[in-house]
Amino acid sequence: MQDETRHASETSPAQDEKTGRRTPRFRQVPMRLILPNMVTLLALCSGLTAIRMAFEGRWEFAIGAVLVAAVLDALDGRVARLLKGTSRFGAELDSLADFVNFGVTPALMLYIWILNDAGSFGWIAALIFAISGALRLARFNVALDDPDKPEWAAHFFTGVPAPAGALTVLMPIYWEFLGFLPHWPEFAPGVAIYTTVIAFLMISRLPTYSGKKFGTRIRRDLVLPLFLVAVLLVALIVSYPFQMLAVGSALYLVSIPFAWRSHRQFLRTDATVTMDDDGDCADTDLDHLSDRDKHDSV
C-alpha cells in the first residue's frame, strides 16, 4: 500500500505554488534545445579523444580530434541560433567543453610531446596555458552580458579566442611533422616559452578578428564559387593537414596587428567609447565599477 502511494505521488502532476495550477512533473523538452547541446557534447568527446591519442603517440589523430572539436565548437552556436534553441544551460556547457577541448587538451598534448623534457618549467607552461584558457572563457561569458557593448565590437574578440589559441599553440608539433623542428629535448624550453606567449595572448586585451559577421549575407553570384572554395579548403586540409595548419596558424598570428589597427579606427570614429576602452565589456574595466564595487574589490 505504501509503495502504491509513493508511486502515485511520484507520477502525479506537481502544483505550481504561484498560479495554483497543476503542471506535469516531467515536461517535454523541444528537440531544438537538445540538438545544439548534442553538438557541444560531440566536441567534448573529440577533445577528450585527442588526449587519449596523445598518450598513445598517435599525433595525427590527436591533432585531427582537436581540429574536429574546433569545427564543432563553431557549429553549435550557429545551430542554436538557427533553431532558436539558445539557452543558459547550453552556454554554460559550451564554456566547460571549451575549457577542456582548448585549454586542458592542448596543454597535456604539449606536455606529453616535449614539455616534459623541460621538467618543472614545462609543466608550469602547460599550467599557465590551461588556466589562461579558463580565465579567457570566463571573461568572454561576462562580455556577453554587457548591454553597453557597441555594435561594431561584434567584429572583434578581446584576446585570442580559445579554439584559435589551441590550434596555434600546437604549431611546434606541425613543424616537427614538416621536418622544420627536430624532436630534441633542448628545444623544450623554447616550446615552453612559446606556449606561455600564446597563453598571455589569450588573456590579453589585444583585439582579434572574430569572424562572427563574416558570411551572414552572400551575394547570389558568389554562392557557387563559395561552395567551390569550401570544398577546396576541406580537400587541402584533409590532404595536407600539417601544412595547412602551420600556414593558418602563422597567418592568424600575423593578422593580430591588423586587427588592432582596425579596432583603433573604430574607436576613433565612435564618440561613445573612449580611446582607453577596449569596446568589449564594461564589467571587466575597473574604471566602470560603481563606488561600492570599487570598495569591495579593494
From TrEMBL:
Q: Where are the transmembrane segments?
A: 31-51, 120-140, 152-175, 187-206, 218-238
Gene3D superfamilies assigned to the protein according to its UniProt record, in alphabetical order: 1.20.120.1760
Keywords in alphabetical order, please. Answer: Lipid biosynthesis, Lipid metabolism, Membrane, Phospholipid biosynthesis, Phospholipid metabolism, Transferase, Transmembrane, Transmembrane helix
Q: Where is the composition biased (Basic and acidic residues)?
A: 1-20
State the InterPro entries in the record. CDP-alcohol_PTase-I, CDP-OH_P_trans, CDP-OH_P_trans_C, CDP-OH_PTrfase_TM_dom, CDP_ALCOHOL_P_TRANSF_CS
Q: Where is this region: Disordered?
A: 1-22
Domain CDP-alcohol phosphatidyltransferase C-terminal as annotated: residue spans? 222-257
Primary subcellular site in the record, as a coarse category: membrane
Location(s), subcellular: Membrane
Q: Tell me where on the tree of life, at the top rank, the source sits.
A: Bacteria
Q: How does it sit in the membrane?
A: Multi-pass membrane protein
- Which family is it part of? Belongs to the CDP-alcohol phosphatidyltransferase class-I family.
PANTHER family tied to this protein:
CDP-DIACYLGLYCEROL--GLYCEROL-3-PHOSPHATE 3-PHOSPHATIDYLTRANSFERASE-RELATED, CDP-DIACYLGLYCEROL--SERINE O-PHOSPHATIDYLTRANSFERASE
- Protein name (record): Phosphatidylcholine/phosphatidylserine synthase
